[in-house]
Amino acid sequence: MRFLAVKVLLISFLCAIEGFAQLANDACATATSLCPSVGVSGSNIGATAATCPTCEDNFTFCFSGTNSVWYQFNTNVTGGDVAFTFSNLNFNLQANRGNQLQATIVQAVVPCDAATYAMVSNCEAGSAGAFTISATGLPANTTYYLVVNGAKNGGATLPAEATFDLIGSGTGFDRPPAGLSIGGPTMTVCPQTPTSFTAYLVNCTDTSDFYWSVNGTLRAVTQSSLWLTSELQNGDVVSVVCSCFNICPDTLTYTYPAVSVDPLTVDAGPDLTVQAGGSVQLVGTSNGTDFMWNPTQTLNTPYAISTYATPEQTTVYTLTALNANCALSDEMTVFVSDNLTIPGSFSPNGDGHNDKWVIEGIEFYPDAQVVVYDRWGQKIADIAGYSLTKAWDGTNKGKPVSDGVYFYSLDLRLNNDTKPLKGSITVIR
Asked: Which of 329, 330, 420 lies closest to 373 in space, CA to CA?
């Protein structure tokens, strides 16, 4: 048993160093696909004999199918002649092993069913150097197999094993070069305007998805050849990548010339907040020549870059700028606030309840300023950044004021044109 184990290990080692592991294309069902005019490096080293249950090597043409490797190819849409050239044959030089390769092209009515094989090319019975296998007049869109094995020439008891280079061509195999181009804008594009790009393909079937990039960054993947974008900047470069053919795919790339985008800009300005009944200035910026704000009903000059708004409710205003070629719009929102609750009285008597004049909602106006006057118009309190912690406590320079009615001016300080809110407050002790 120990001797048998050592023998198995020795055989495994020899197989490893000589490359005798079973090849991926050892069987017809796992044949390696060949592509037009694309060279491959092949080998039949380690190919199994006809006893392989799925190899379908049980055929005899000018050679038997033992120890074969398999390749597969499809004729093109026109059909015609095909030729496969073998070169750079390097044989495994071993005692009692042949030194010639054999090959032919086989058609199978039933894929990989040896009973339906038919030879359609010349049959190379044994060659130690470069040789060609060729077939003429093959029909279009048909699958064929190129089968290769080693000869037992010169009285050898072991079939030849070799590495080789293989390339195929011919009118029935070659494909017209696939081509890709892009149709796009031929003149200056207006900013933020939907712009279409179309990929045009020639000699391409089984098209993949289209991968669209701008300046080298992937932006979209489309199943159709059309891509629409509104995000182009001046000088952007659009490119597309796709592939043709499920078998022997061909990846294509095309880059469209840099896009020219009109320099028109517009900015409606930041969102603003105004107390109900107040007005606010809308200040836009643009390099356009003409302007229009919408909606116009609450604006005093809707056709100027800057205007005043007196909205009754929260309103989205759109500023549209125009030049000789383009129009461009931007939006801003004026929020109308009615969230202030201004108490008419408070009782600063030190009982811990209602001791300060707390204005609910004032926290939304961090820059608010409150000025309190007595009945003779004398200022007795001036509080900037009015808040819960800075609310008026009914004192004047640290001394309690007397009970009675006082008057206030509350400036929310949203902008220079906001009118202060005015009213009265009663101090009750």
From this structure: 420
Domain 19-169 matching CATH 3.20.20.70: the answer reads: no
Task: Report the top-level CATH class of 179-255.
Answer: mainly beta
On whether the CB atoms of residues 217 and 145 are closer than 8 A, the answer is no
CB-CB contact of 28 with 116 (8 Å)? no
What is the residue extent of each domain of the chain?
Answer: 19-169, 179-255, 266-337, 345-427
- Report residue 170 as tokens: 């011919």
Quick one: how far is CA 165 from the chain centroid? 39
Superfamily (CATH H level) for 266-337: Immunoglobulins (2.60.40.10)
Predicted local distance difference test score (pLDDT) of residue 5: 37
Helix (H, G, I), strand (E, B) or coil at 45: coil
DSSP output for 275-340 = ETT--EEEE-EES-SEEEEES-TTBS-TTSSEEEE--SS-EEEEEEEE-SS-EEEEEEEEEEE---
Token output for 320:
């549209």
What pLDDT sits at residue 312? 86
CA angle 161, 165, 169 (to 5 degrees): 130
Over its C-alpha atoms, the chain yields an Rg (Å, rounded) of: 44
- Indicate the SS3 state at residue 28: helix
Residue 22: per-residue pLDDT: 62
Which residues of the chain are under the pLDDT cut of 50? 1-21
Q: What is the pTM of this model?
A: 0.64
pLDDT of residue 9: 35
**Fold agreement between 19-169 and 179-255:** no
CATH of domain 345-427: 2.60.40
